[in-house]
């Protein structure tokens, strides 16, 4: 876990954030801060607004009220060009990995480079692709297509494709969903390795307590549209609050 003395500034500041869809109130005045070099886990049941929160951070949705400042920019006020530039600094690891089925692993990783970085030589592209693949331990898959990979391998390749643009912030959407227990542990280890090697700051969205405990410097427990409690894993779950206790008991009984 990260020593607090290294966390010298906030890279994401969310204050009094509200978001509704018609009569459905999803976020009801949430506050959250992500410091540089930190992993924060947003923990909660399905349908509690976790994914809505990271979509607001990435500028895919706009809040109804409140502020969401990312790398010093209020996301909701940015124009399309400014938003594109901000997104280049944010890596988004999708739940389903979002790889292009018709492309090889190499082509999937080349795509964001060719699209977003000018004047790269073929040697530059090859070097960067091979570097991130090696970082996730899957250099041997470079010429395979997604259908030839396991779920855990696809998840790793998706993370590698995100890393290729060297983002400052990583957003992980349910990184262990649908994976077997051993692969879940490997993905948890990879998330921590990414933080150490690439010096990223990350928000990890999950309902998996094992993932939360393994990867989170801090936990923010989202229930009923608000953060019920924030702190270390031990601080959050050392409580008499029945909703938190029941979430813990159910998760580990499973």
From TrEMBL:
GO molecular function: ATP binding; ATP hydrolysis activity
Record flagged with keyword ATP-binding: yes
A Pfam family per the record: ABC_tran
Domain of life: Bacteria
Keywords: ATP-binding, Nucleotide-binding, Transport
Keyword tRNA processing: no
Record-annotated ABC transporter domain positions: 12-249
PANTHER family associated with the record: PROTEIN TRIGALACTOSYLDIACYLGLYCEROL 3, CHLOROPLASTIC (PTHR43023)
Protein's name in the database: ATP-binding cassette domain-containing protein
Organism: Dyadobacter pollutisoli
